[in-house]
Amino acid sequence: MFDDNDSAREDDGVRGTDGDGDDNGDSDGVPEHWKRTREMTDGGQPADESRSGILTEDTEAELDRGPFQQWVADSISNPERVYRSMFYTATIFFLFTTLFPFYWLLMVALTPEGQQQDIILTPNGFNPGAFIEVFQVLPFHWYMFNSFVIATASTILVLVIGSLAGYAFGRLEFPGKTPLMLLVLIISFFPPAAFFIPLNDLFNTSFFLLEPITGDGTLYNTPGAMVLPLSAIFMPLAIFILTTFYAQIPDGLEDAARVEGTTRLGALFRVIIPLSAPGVATAGVLTFIAVYNEFFFSFLMTDGQPENWAPILEGILGYQGQYEVMYHLMAASSIIGVIPVAILVIVAQEKIVSGLTAGALKE
Amino acid sequence: MATDTDGPIGGGETETERDRSGNAVVNWMENLSEAAYAYLLLLPAFALLTLIAFYPLIMTFIMSLREDRTRGAEPLGGFVGIDNYVDILTGNARVARQFMDISVSASFPFLELGVPLLQQALFVTLGFAVISVFFETVIGFGQAYVLDQDFRGRRWVRVAIILPWAVPIVIQGMIFFLLFQPEVGFGSDLMQWLGIFGPNPLADSQDAFIIILVADIWKSAAFMALLILAGLQSVDRSLYDVARVAGASPWQRFKMITLPLVMPALLVAMLFRTMDAMRVYGLIESTAGCTTVPSLTCLVVEAMFGGTRIFATAAAVAFATALVIGLIISVYVFFFRDTEGGLY
């Protein structure tokens, strides 16, 4: 589906450039003053060059041109060229700035311990063993597993509860709809710290009901201590996205399912949610990444031990030991920690963008 | 909140009775009125939000109105009204770094700083939010504009540019910590050579502030790009063809078509980012540390865990932060209320 979309857009682009060619051909037939205004307004960046170019062309049209003048002359006859080269410059600049930190991190990770000075483009030595050592010094795989479980559980919880709420907000009419929606959004105003003290008390309180599950009956040092607050904090965004998606499904489809004898909940889970798959995927991916990346509760809701469900964050900070700082392991663990979300971005980026395009930002 | 619980009781008549073989729960659900059904569906979400968000917020607020008691078993004393808020606004709170510390003086410029601006949490946070959101918007727009074009390999360029957004905060912090840690990274040497940074940038308020800004812009410009790209992609392409036929230059096309149509998405993105930037904590904690760059959330955390037992003050700072964020959002809504498409 998305590939089709892409190829369609590419066709567009081809037509676009053809159009440009025609444009330039036509521009000869255009009155002289039109052309002048066009050149003036064009001149965002390359203004000086094109102006001097105009003079050169007018007065010395017969002379041989150097490569630069040639380029300038071409740019004037075909302004799209300038924009294209600006575009490539910008692309390369953005690629460099976003990717260089990762590349550099890899170089630090590959440098043997104790030789970390002055790494810029190449590592000092070559020690891929750091990527194994990471798992030997600390049970890093355990931290990663914890992070996965916490992020997955939160995502499922948010999608299920958020779907119910999103359906109510998006497709049903009831008194108090707007105030309740605002009440949900208002949560995003508060710093996580504002929730923390009472939550910390709550999670350290022993509940009789929880004793068979957690031993001492408290939630502290269990995945629940992170899944619950993180779900609550990231749920407003998911509800927001799901609401706009569910609202867009035509009523007729749901009515048809109801006439066929589906229950109300059945219609939600068998008709509305499947039809809003891009929206659900967007909300799910955004929630997973947000929970996996979260700092505040991940840092404070466990005691940092992997057996007590400490997430990846504690692992990465753990290489900063009391007596020595293992820079190469910090770098290696950071790279390993990025890999899951990087894969998610590679797989889901089209969905995220089209999901946001189709839904959340329209309203 | 009351509506949630008493909703289902009220309904039950509007839908025609369906005689179905389902169990009692399904039958009961089928017979609810639309409003009652809506409240039923909202119940789980609001139950969770009440337990995890609303209840703690109310407790925190009550806590912020009580007295700090640094001795004895009970950490909170009697009810003192808004004294804690007055203390943090006048720079008299018992925290390591002040929320704000400015007094009025007789001579020009009539304001006197108790401590340098970069050691006052409110101004550190506001400065951080304003500068970072500004650069993130500009750079994010540039990135989104590049990603909106059609070219070979667009998919991979898009992945590369969006990637920083997906990086966990602790890893983002780790990257910039290593880059500017004099023992490892070249960033410190480079900036010293340029004459911008001192010898140990991570321990210097001003240098560390710049590092944190750069780190945040690196990561969050990608988030801006993502949201703006979504806005750009919903722009009707045929508008550009019309403009091209009318002889509009690319700059004119941008100014007359792209910008106005993307404005709502841009504003939503800026609003989200501003709220996030005002709550910055993890990035600071994992690079320079809260003593060097005290943000508002840093202040709360230090007051809470600093061992000084000033929980009431911590709660007051947390609430003051929320108020500042609320104020900023009202400013957004106020200034951009006339924008086509609106904020919401």
TrEMBL record, chain A:
Residues 1-18, 30-41 have a biased composition (Basic and acidic residues). It is a multi-pass membrane protein. Residues 1-52 are annotated as: Disordered. This is ABC transporter permease subunit. Pfam families: BPD_transp_1 (PF00528). It comes from Natronorubrum halalkaliphilum. Keywords: Cell membrane, Membrane, Transmembrane, Transmembrane helix, Transport. InterPro entries: BP-dep_ABC_trans_perm, MetI-like, MetI-like_sf. It comes from the Archaea. The chain crosses the membrane at residues 86-106, 143-168, 180-199, 226-247, 268-292, 325-347.
TrEMBL record, chain B:
Pfam families: BPD_transp_1. It is a multi-pass membrane protein. It is found in: Cell membrane. The chain crosses the membrane at residues 36-62, 124-147, 159-180, 208-232, 253-272, 310-335. One of its GO terms (biological process) is transmembrane transport. The keyword Transport applies. Belongs to the binding-protein-dependent transport system permease family. This is ABC transporter permease subunit. It comes from Natronorubrum halalkaliphilum.
